[in-house]
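Here is an idea for our session: we take a single protein and study its fold together. Once you have written the record down, we can walk along the chain together.
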Amino acid sequence: MPRSLVGRLIAILALLLAAALASGFVMFSLFEQSTAARIGQASAVASQSCGAIARAYRFYTADWRGDAPDLSAPALRRDLAAVVVTALNDKRDVEGGLWQADAGSLAYAFPSYQGSGPKTDVPQAELPRIRAAAAAALTDDRPQLARLDAASQTLLIASCPLSGPIPSLTAWTMTRVHSFAGETYDHLMAGLAILSAAVIGASGLASLLVLTWRRHVGRIEAAFAAAGGDDLPRLPPTGERELDRIVLAMNDAGRRLAASHDRTRELSRQVAEAERLAAIGRVTAGVAHEIRNPIAAMRLKAESALRGGDERKVQALALVIAQVDRLDGLVRRLLTAAERDPPQPVATPLAPFLDACADAHAEVARQRGLSLAATAPGESAWFDPAQMRRALDNLVANALEAAGAGTVSLSAARLGDRLVFSVSDDGGGPPEAIRATLFEPFVTGRPEGAGLGLSIVREIARAHAGNADVVRDGGITTFRIEIPWRMS
């Protein structure tokens, strides 16, 4: 079964056409049967008419005495013509006469002729057939019926031998059955015309329906294509009852969707506002905590210096300078975390890039008795080397702080269509309690840490359309930066 309206209408039209063809075939078959029946009936009438002429001739010659008459005598010809007229007077569409083998036509009559006057001449076009029919009747000495089928009619000639004073005499009758004329033919033409009109009308209505629906559906598609945003367009009525039900349902769904979008936008605004306030709260709390401790330390040292001598004042000033440096570093990290510069990716060879990063931390690793190893494929990838170096420096510095007595590994690898930077160490890893929020600002597992390094790592990864995470497996902690791989 076709799944589209057009396909179904075409199927219906095909069935209608098949039914019309079948009906036309049946009607034509009935017409042919009717024509055959009319030919059979006309054959019987022609034979009966020939017999009627024979009976009238026998009646005419019943009291005949003497020798054979003069066939050229006008009186004889008038009498014989009267015999034929008498026999055929009630025979519709039948003409006939008397035929003598040597003299030819002795009498002819067509009483039912529809012309302007009586027809008295034998049809010249049919003379050879009449002569042949008469000869066949004389030869076989019994009635004959000749049939000639033409394109538009069937010609029937009946002949029967006559005995009497005129030798070699035959009676003949002739009638025509028109195949494409008459009441039956008119009925056939009327039926075929009605069938044709029905098929044409149905095809026209179906075509109009298809075009109308296509136009309406095209307008609906155009309205959806022209609609901007996520809301459904307002569809105008089409005038088609069934289609308008769908249009009304779509418009109602569009109204509900628009209302839902409004509610969603309002909720999103409220959530964003709440998140912004929460972020401000977290940053404020973190900054306050980071600033309060150095300020408290400086206050205590300053108060102690005011009560002590010069040596204590020098120690207090040294501590104040150290705490100021600590605050300055905190401010720099805050500014770095707040940066939103878009990355400037360039084709960067991975192996030299990681080697340079490892070399920058090699001295710290030696001082702590650690081994720092970098491994990378001999390929180039697209990323911002400055931003990625900043992220990896944070991860390597954290790994050197957390590592035990083993090796800190720095690596890059391609996994499908992704590039993964990894920094691994054998330290204890971040506490389980803060692992879910480890990349948030001011979240740290070290008392002396500011909790900004990993948030910077995550922001750089996200700026590269990637992400950062941490996994703990078999005593090894691995921080990963995963970004799309783009070969140079």
Summary: The first helix runs from residue 5 to 60. The radius of gyration is 59 Å. The mean pLDDT is 81.
